[in-house]
Amino acid sequence: MTQKKFFMALLVSMAITLALWFLPDAITTYILDIRGVSSFLAADPTVGQINKPNFSGKFGGFLDPFSTFVSIGPLGERRSSEGNCKNVPYFLFMGDSITAGFEVNDEETFVSKININCKTTRIVGANFGVLGYDTHEVIANYTRISRSIKHDAVLYLITDTDLWENTQLFPYVNIAKRFGRVFFGTYYLPTISNLERAYLNFRIFASDHFYATSTAIKLLERWYAGRSQVAHTYTTIPADQAETLVKLVKILSAAVKGHGTLYIAASPCVTTALCAGPDIERLLQNSNQSGEFVVLPLATELESKFNRGEINKKDMRFYNDVHLSKYGHHVLAEELTRLFATSPGDTKRNY
Known about the structure:
Blueprint: H1 3-32, E1 34-35, E2 41-44, E3 48-51, E4 56-60, E5 67-71, E6 90-95, H2 97-100, H3 110-116, H4 118-121, E7 124-129, H5 135-145, E8 153-158, H6 160-165, H7 173-179, E9 181-183, E10 186-188, H8 194-209, H9 211-228, H10 239-256, E11 261-266, H11 277-286, E12 294-295, H12 298-308, E13 317-318, E14 321-324, H13 326-342
Parallel strand pairs: 1-4, 6-7, 6-8, 8-11, 11-12
Antiparallel strand pairs: 2-3, 4-5, 9-10, 13-14
Helix pairs in contact: 3-13, 5-10, 8-9, 11-12
């Protein structure tokens, strides 16, 4: 076989192999109507990324531990079930992917469960959780929506990752490269090369059209990140992270003042790794001498219930994903309802 024929045979074999991979992947993705993460986000120069208004699609698939239907409202809120109650306080629930709850269906998030059971919970609300958010972006997003939607109170659900992210200009580089980033009230957009832009565009295209391929790429990216980054587990909160969190929470508290009460809680620890949830709540409680906001001991009390065996923390998450399962959202809704009922916050209607 001549060298030319050898290379032609090699090219044909490669083309057939790629076609056998990509064609079934594309057909499967189309039939199942699976959407990539980027499809659910839109750029906003005052925040960075927000949930794409008036968008809906399937999140996750057969290679993930979940496959759900996610729909977004006109202000970028995760659509929630509506409660049939009037003259009860209206909450804005703010946070990151734990709050957004894309891993369960619209009616299964803790916000939907609170709304559905409003005759018991005595509150209703809207879910403004967004994937990848930290406290900087929660503040910016609240500023964006606060005058557009009447509300009586805000709950900010903090997760461990917020601590580190709050101190980094670009904690999620790929997200920042596409949408930009708000940091202490200033919008930043990193300069990227043509090669980086081409890769980013390819990732977005792959996530929307090739589900299996996109999943394989995500695994490779996570593997690389795991080799190059230190895992964030906590015995104590580093001083710079603690100081930054307190500073940002007070900025958020000042923004909420005049609209109603700011409640803050930490997401419960549902993994075997060390978590900072109870420490976050104690830190904020100790820094709240003037009573600017209300700290709900959500993570602290759930940790006690885990230790007593009343709740199995493993049941609150997916087997290979740290996000809350349907049961996890159910527990969160019940715990928040109990804590709101006994908290000192003023949730009277302001309109």
